[in-house]
């Protein structure tokens, strides 16, 4: 984020804290896309994501006095969005399990994968996990954010405080290191 826009953001936050609620609309406008994308990624549902995005901004507004500025506002807001969506997902999972506790037929337990395919998937996942965990920082974090948390280069750059080019470079180097490690383990 540019220095000028960060200063502008700080002014909006201070205005909201001073009682000018309308200043919060500037923050909503700036970050609604990011919050919505987080919600869609976690929920997989457009309508639920819209509802959750509104809930995130309500929570952020109420919690704004607790924002200390130790991290970027976008990072703080991202955490609220992430936690809100995870809570929603847990709640829906419990509801689904409760509704689906009826008697099952034999066909309900049929899967499309064979035991061999499942074993191969587990083995591949274990190898991938081992490879990622063998990376040193910052490569491990960047790989985890990009591939597992599905963050964009822009989001990773904002969260880590480096440029997008640095993120690209770190991902490239991490993939090279993982390839070399994979060859060593075979």
Helix content: over 70%
Oligomer: single chain
The main pleated sheet reads as: none
Query: SSE order, as H and E?
Result: HHHHHHHH
Please report which band the strand proportion falls in: under 5%, 5-15%, 15-25%, 25-35%, 35-45% or over 45%. under 5%
Give the integer mean of the pLDDT values: 81
List key phrases describing it:
0% strand; mainly alpha; 186 residues; flat; 8 helices
What does this structure look like?
With 186 residues, the protein is an all-alpha fold. It is built from eight helices and no strands. It has helices at 3-17, 24-43, 46-63, 73-99, 115-133, 139-148, 153-160, 164-185. Helix 2 (24-43) packs parallel to helix 4 (73-99) and helix 6 packs across helix 8 (164-185). The radius of gyration is 21 Å and the shape is flat. The protein starts with a helix and ends with a helix. The mean pLDDT is 81.
Helix-strand layout with pairing:
Layout: H1 3-17, H2 24-43, H3 46-63, H4 73-99, H5 115-133, H6 139-148, H7 153-160, H8 164-185
Helix pairs in contact: 2-3, 2-4, 3-4, 6-8, 7-8
In short:
With 186 residues, the protein is an all-alpha fold. The protein has helices at residues 3-17, 24-43, 46-63, 73-99, 115-133, 139-148, 153-160, 164-185.
